[in-house]
Write a structure and sequence with these properties.
two-stranded antiparallel ribbon; 9 strands; alpha/beta; 41% helix; Rossmann fold; seven-stranded mixed β-sheet; globular; 213 residues; 2 domains
Amino acid sequence: EWRVLDLGAGYGGSARYLADNHGCRVTALNLSEVENERNRSINKARGLDSLIDVIDGSFESVPAPDAEFDVVWSQDAFLHSGEREQVMREAVRVLKPGGVLIFTDPMADDACPEGVLDPILERIHLDSLGSPGFYQQTAADLGLKPIGFEDHTHQLPRHYGRVREELESREADLASQISPDYIERMKKGLGHWVDGGQAGHLAWGIFRFRKAA
């Protein structure tokens, strides 16, 4: 039985997929107690609560012992930390020898000019984004061996553009629940991601690293 830690698990979609399709025992770590309560409720309704433990906590200080997990997994969460190197260090700490770190993250391109991503950073209240080179160098410094990086950067502007289209198509229905000002800010923010991706200033892909046995 594989032990998996999902860092920044959100509402738990990945954890449920891994548990339901592969029989993994998943620890879903997430900072938002509201998201975690909904995660627990969905897991129970689907009969997966025996395989998924939902934990309130920060991925900068993982509440788990050393060498606990076969896989550490994360989807588009590391960017929200101002201490991404510490997040990586914690991932390595809780991995078993020979374990695998798999994650994705919206990033700056390694050759991104300074300042061009400021509209994105201001919108999501961050000082910076990681980059492929940053994660690869940090992994090497922590003793991780690269298994591979699948570059799917072209999917990033397509994704944010599709989210914007969906928001616009449902704008009338959402008007009774969300203020017009908030919707406009959302559309503007999504547009920054689309523009940054199309300009080649952003990157996205799937990293895989292995801890030494």
